[in-house]
UniProtKB/TrEMBL annotation:
It is found in: Chromosome, Telomere; Nucleus. InterPro entries: CTC1 (IPR029156), CTC1-like (IPR042617). Its main location: nucleus. Residues 655-676 have a biased composition (Basic and acidic residues). It comes from the Eukaryota. One of its GO terms (biological process) is positive regulation of DNA replication. Belongs to the CTC1 family. Keywords: Chromosome, DNA-binding, Nucleus, Telomere. GO terms for molecular function: single-stranded DNA binding; telomeric DNA binding. GO terms for cellular component: CST complex. This is CST complex subunit CTC1.
Length: 1217
């Protein structure tokens, strides 16, 4: 406890004293009073054995111990004398474990008499001594002399190479001449406590020394030097001549000086061209109101200015600098806004500044001593010779780093500044950030120049306000900022092309708005945002996460080569990622009646979002590898982590999530461990473990399953459990290891080479993952070789014993029904390698596995009519992601629907449609439907991502289209992330890069596969055309502002314009019927926007206008002739102007209408001038119009010539005369 003792004071005196101390900090309580008597010797530590430990501090000691003390007034005679301290405070350290220090509030009372002082001394006055320093000749011959002068400057204590020293500056009594004196003998360091600016002193036995490098001279104390208060009567002047006839004593001090400048080899801050500011040198007296960062030497004075002591290396030991203490700063640098984000003016104390403690704090605040060795703040400051702006930035980064991650690794290990060969996590993070900021030209910082030069020069003189180039905020801030950014300037209309949206009914419109996303990269933030986090895996969400103290961010990791991420050894490591995609999925609940209302945000009922991050393993920097916590775990009887050596080259550690979770989840006693554990009677029994190698042959997705295997005692037997299962093949027999660290490199595979393969072939087992073992979901992948490790176990049959149905061991290999093995919570999964990576020697085992890697089909194969399988696996790139209504027959099963999906932010009646293409340009597209209930476990399904889909159900629609649905046993894994420049999704189809130019005749062979193509064709005629105004809710005809549906009456007040037309086109190689919708009808008719608008307005009063066209003769006129609009349209369609060449982008119409069923081959007549041709014509394909472009004359002739050149052989029109 902090406390104070005032022997002679009354209670009122104490109260008064305490009250005054609260002046600037009324919220802080004063030091509590105790009534203890402190008696002891004052010492500078010189008699405690090693003189090197004399660090300039003073101590109070008695026969029981020694404690540092701090005095405002001190006399040399007091040293080694016994005192009674009438008034003092004891200040403990913050962490309580180490001793604090004593602040001596009043002069001590001597118990025995202090020693006598010496007689008169011959003294050289400064006026005559100063020329010695400036002239070179005098340097040669020197002896010891005594100097007298007034103390004008007192340098801080510095400690370099375990040598502590300081400089003081004496000024001539009569002139402005001053000389520096280096005080470096251990027994003289206590002088630092006596010396007071403006007082006069005499120092004896000084010799002279000069710095080799700069030639600067100074006086240096010798072992026999004494510091005396100057007293004119006691000194007699000595002429200089005699003083300088003696032996040279320069050597030792010079050596030290060389060492010193060598150890501070620091770059001089580069002068930058942009508005560099000059700092003012001022003096200041203020009260410490807050310790901003003791280690970094930052203190807040008077709640408004920041005092930085970092440039004074030892930070005054920060003793006495507690809130409430008063300090006087002499010659400090005043810096305004050195760092843009730093809120205070900064007073920087450099080596020529003096910091004097004026009064002790009377408040009960404790003290955290700055560590002088291994203080990363100061080490980096001196190593890179940082200016104040960079230093403050460094401090803010380190503070953040410590705050976020010390709870995972411990502050000490995290900030540990170690040798250059093995830098600590913080150093690994900071150094690459600092290096580009400091100039390459490294020039030794000459601290002597800084102290001795008459023209002051130091790193604080000039500065440039710094805008931090990057930031690394906590994950909760990252998520918040990402969410804000994703909604910033968001409007629903961005998500839709207005051309499309204006024709959408209410349901479709709102569904298209329901789910969108935006991706952010490091550069999307200002300044650039660096992600830091501890990689963990959550068994609750079965997802990988980056975590810090504030929050967790789900993450998706992939490899650049497309292999899945399975590095179990990375769990628990601290990662840094600078190249990533932060994905914000936005979920909107809206009720916009129609597109016209999109601007009115009242229709947005709910906004939600979820954030996750995707990155490549290759872009990860591991700042701190997961610790092998096995030792710790074993010691506590809870083996929770393993370390293995693979190939002897790299040591990968595996720290289990269980160990990681200690801080977040209560470690529950594991009911199953006892049976696995051999009891721990011997240390060998405790450290041994059993492992078994296996290869994954099938993995299913996460979902709620009805397993009632265990935990009956929990009463949860009947509840559905989130789970996944995987079929694996055991490789070899279980192995016993005396210690997890000794697990070798796949001995099982070598063993199978000589053993019979019989054993292997039948050992298939279905692994069930539930509860905590769900954490392995992100790591387990098809064709991966993994090892289960059962810690604390020496029972080789542990795996067989847990299988069910229980089968006697001898039948195991013959059993045809698959065995189930529930994966225990305590087991560890360790990824070893992939089948494809096995070496030659291990290929014997590989032969067992043949036939397993052929289950991945290609999209064209699956689309083909001859494909027979019903469960399919394939990979492809997502081209488009849209929400659609759940198909009636795909409604989520009752059991799944029963339970409210907590994580799902999408309405359950939605279903996701993914269009997946086999290769970026192949144009072969497969549609995949995923019910909303499955989506909560699926990450990274974004356009541009390449995905491996496994075990989807292949289905055929009633129009004979092949598509796939995601079912309970399905699974996806990400092969590659989308390119990071992806724009917003749902770009209108027409904006894609222009599709390849084809011929109608060439469409037939790959009817199923063509997503989009372009033809140059001639519009032959418009066969049907209909313009209508439909109700946005029920799609009935909307007329004169009302829905025409009567039973039951429809409340809708919003109509939507729709238009459709079937047109016939031919391109010389064939004909096709093209379905045009909405805005494409306008383009096909060649109407301007204004004409189209007017036309649609006319339709509003009629509800619907449609015309039909007789195919060849133009006779059939079945509409009411009186309607003007119908007449106009009919005339328009018959006009020769309509029939023109166009460039048509189309896709195959997958839902051909009845009237347009493919016709068999037929003969048709063609007329060309006077000649009539009869031609055999194939069935007309039915196309869906995606875009219509008019063709310029120039383009037309160019395209035509191109066509002729390319086609001569392709033309399939067989013409006969
Ligand atoms: Zn300075
Ligand atoms: Zn209606």
């Amino acid at each position: 406890m902090p406390c104070c003792s005032h022997l002679t004071w009354s209670t009122n005196e104490f109260k008064e004293w305490a009250h005054q101390g609260q002046g600037s900090l009324p919220m802080q309580s004063p030091l509590p009073r105790t009534y203890l008597i402190l008696v002891g010797y004052l010492t500078d530590g010189r008699q405690e054995g090693n003189a090197n430990l004399v660090d300039g501090c003073l101590y109070v000691k008695d026969n029981t111990g020694i404690i540092p003390c701090e005095l405002l007034h001190f006399e040399l005679e007091w040293l080694e004398s016994l005192f009674l301290f009438p008034s003092w405070s004891y200040i403990p350290q913050t962490d309580r474990s180490a001793a604090g220090y004593v602040e001596i509030l009043a002069d001590p009372v001597p118990v025995n008499l202090p020693k006598e002082v010496c007689d008169s001394i011959p003294v050289t006055y400064l006026a005559s001594a100063e020329p010695l320093l400036t002239s070179r000749i005098a340097c040669k011959k020197r002896s010891k002399l005594a100097l007298a002068g007034e103390l004008v400057r007192l340098g801080p204590l510095l400690c370099i190479h375990h040598k502590t020293f300081f400089f003081l500056f004496l000024k001539c009594f009569t002139s402005a001449v001053w000389v520096p004196v280096l005080v470096q003998k251990p027994n003289q360091l206590a002088w630092h406590h006596i010396l007071q600016l403006g007082h006069r002193y005499t120092i004896t036995s000084l010799s002279m020394s000069s710095l080799k490098k700069s030639g600067q001279r100074m006086f240096v104390t010798s072992v026999s030097s004494c510091l005396l208060h100057y007293c004119a009567e006691q000194v007699r002047e000595q002429p200089l001549d005699s003083a300088w006839q003696g032996e040279s004593t320069q050597s030792s001090s010079l050596e030290t000086a060389e060492q010193l400048s060598g150890s501070l080899e620091l770059g001089v801050e580069e002068e930058r061209p942009r508005s560099t500011k000059e700092s003012k040198i001022i003096s200041y007296v203020g009260t410490v109101t807050k310790i901003l960062n003791g280690q970094a030497g930052l203190f807040l004075l008077d709640n408004k200015v920041c005092l930085c002591l970092a440039y004074q290396q030892l930070l005054n030991f920060a003793r006495g600098l507690r809130p409430g203490a008063c300090v006087e700063l002499i010659d400090v640098h005043l810096l305004q806004k050195p760092l843009v984000s730093f809120p205070f003016i900064v007073l920087g104390a450099c080596l020529s500044s003096t910091v004097v403690l004026k009064s002790f704090s009377r408040l009960s605040t404790s003290y955290q001593p700055p560590t002088s060795s291994g203080n990363l703040y100061l080490q980096l400051l001196f190593r890179y010779n940082l200016g104040m702006p960079l230093y403050l930035w460094l401090v803010s980064l380190l503070e953040m780093f410590e705050e976020r991650f010390s709870c995972f690794f411990g502050r000490h290990r995290l900030l540990l500044s170690s040798t250059h060969r093995n830098p600590g996590a913080a150093e690994k993070f900071l150094v690459p950030l600092l290096q580009p900021m400091v100039p390459d030209r490294v020039e030794a910082r000459d601290i002597y120049n800084e102290i001795l030069e008459k023209i002051h020069h130091c790193p604080l003189q000039k500065y440039l306000s710094l805008n931090p180039p990057c930031q690394a905020p906590s994950l909760s801030v990252v998520c918040r900022v990402a969410e804000e950014k994703s909604w910033e300037g968001f409007s629903p209309s961005q998500l839709l092309s207005p051309l499309e949206a204006q024709h959408m009914g209410t349901q479709e419109l709102n569904r298209r708005l329901a789910w969108s996303y935006c991706t952010l990269s490091a550069g999307s933030f200002q300044p650039r945002l660096i992600l830091l986090g501890v990689l963990r895996v959550s068994s609750r969400s079965s997802s990988l996460q980056l975590q810090d103290k504030s929050s967790a961010l789900p993450c998706v990791i992939s490899h650049k080569d497309g292999s899945p991420f399975a590095r179990t050894a990375l769990i628990g490591s601290l990662l840094q990622v600078e190249n990533y995609q932060l994905v914000v999925e936005r979920f909107l609940q809206t009720d916009f009646p129609s597109w016209e209302h999109l601007a009115n945000l009242e229709h947005v009922r709910e906004k939600k979002n979820s954030v996750y991050v995707q990155f490549c393993f290759e872009d990860v920097q591991v700042l701190h590898a997961a610790e092998g916590q096995i030792q710790k775990g074993l010691r506590s009887g809870n083996s929770s982590s393993l370390r293995r050596k693979a190939d002897g080259s790299l040591t990968s550690e595996l720290e289990t999530p269980k160990a990681k979770m200690l801080k977040l989840e209560d470690p529950k006693p594991d009911t199953h461990r006892d049976e696995n554990c051999q009891g721990g009677q011997s240390s060998a029994g405790r450290t041994s473990c059993v492992s078994r190698l296996f290869v994954v042959t099938q993995k299913e997705g996460l979902m709620l399953r009805n397993y009632q295997l265990r935990r009956e005692e929990d009463g949860e037997g009947s509840e559905l459990q989130c789970s996944f299962q995987s079929t694996v093949l055991w490789l070899g027999r279980p192995q016993l290891w005396s210690h997890p660290r000794e697990i070798g490199n796949l001995p099982e595979l070598e063993e199978t080479g000589c053993d019979g393969e019989e054993d292997l072939t039948r050992q298939e087992v279905l692994l069930l993952f539930m509860g905590k073992s769900l954490r392995w979901f992100p790591f387990l992948h098809l064709d991966g070789l993994y090892r289960f490790i059962v810690p604390c176990c020496s029972d080789l049959e542990v795996f067989d014993k847990l299988c069910f149905p229980p089968v006697p061991a001898k039948f195991l290999s013959r059993s045809s029904c698959p065995l189930c093995l529930p994966v225990q919570d305590t087991w560890h999964l360790q990824h070893e390698t992939w089948i494809s990576c096995l070496t030659e020697r291990q290929l014997a085992a590989r032969s067992v596995l043949t036939g397993m890697d052929q289950r991945i089909s290609s999209i064209p194969e699956i689309l083909h009519n001859s494909f027979t399988g019903s469960l399919v696996s394939f990979s492809g790139e997502i081209v488009e992601r849209t929400l659609c209504a759940s198909p009636k027959n795909e409604k989520p099963s009752v059991t799944v629907g029963l339970r409210k999906q907590k994580g799902s932010l999408l309405a359950a009646d939605h279903s996701l449609k993914l269009s997946v293409s086999a290769a970026p340009d192949s144009g072969v597209v497969m549609d995949i439907y995923i019910a909303a209930t499955y989506l909560q476990h699926l990450w990274g399904l974004l356009p541009g991502a390449k995905i491996l889909f496994q075990n989807l159900e292949r289905k055929i629609s009633r129009f004979h289209n092949v598509y796939c649905t995601y079912i309970a046993s399905s699974c996806v894994s990400i092969i590659s992330l989308p390119a990071s420049h992806l724009p917003f999704p749902s770009s209108p189809a027409g904006e894609a890069s222009s599709p390849s130019l084809v011929f109608l005749s060439s469409l037939q062979p790959h009817l199923q596969n063509l997503p989009q193509a372009r033809i140059l064709c001639h519009l032959s005629c418009v066969r049907t055309l209909s313009l209508q105004w439909v109700c946005s809710l029920c799609s009935s005809i909307f007329k004169e502002g009302k829905c025409t549906r009567h039973s039951p009456p429809c409340p809708s007040h919003t109509g939507v314009r729709q238009a459709s037309a079937w047109v016939l086109v031919e391109d010389g190689t064939g004909e096709a019927l093209v379905l045009c919708k909405n805005q494409h009808v306008r383009a096909m008719l060649g109407l301007s926007l204004l004409e189209w608008e007017a036309l649609q307005n006319c339709v509003q009063s009629r509800g619907r206008v449609s015309i039909q066209h007789g195919e060849a003769t133009g006779t059939g006129c079945v509409e009411e002739p009186e309607d003007l609009i119908a007449c106009y349209l009919r005339n328009l369609c018959r006009s020769p102007l309509i029939c023109r060449p166009i460039l048509l982008d189309f896709s195959l119409n997958r839902k051909p209408s009845k009237i347009l069923q493919p016709a068999p081959l037929q003969l048709r007549n063609f007329r060309c001038g006077e000649v009539e041709f009869v031609s055999q014509v194939g069935p007309r394909p039915s196309l869906l119009c995606l875009n219509v472009e008019e063709v310029e004359q120039g383009t037309l002739s160019y395209l035509n010539s191109e066509r002729i050149r390319r086609t001569s052989s392709h033309c399939q029109v067989v013409a006969t005369a």
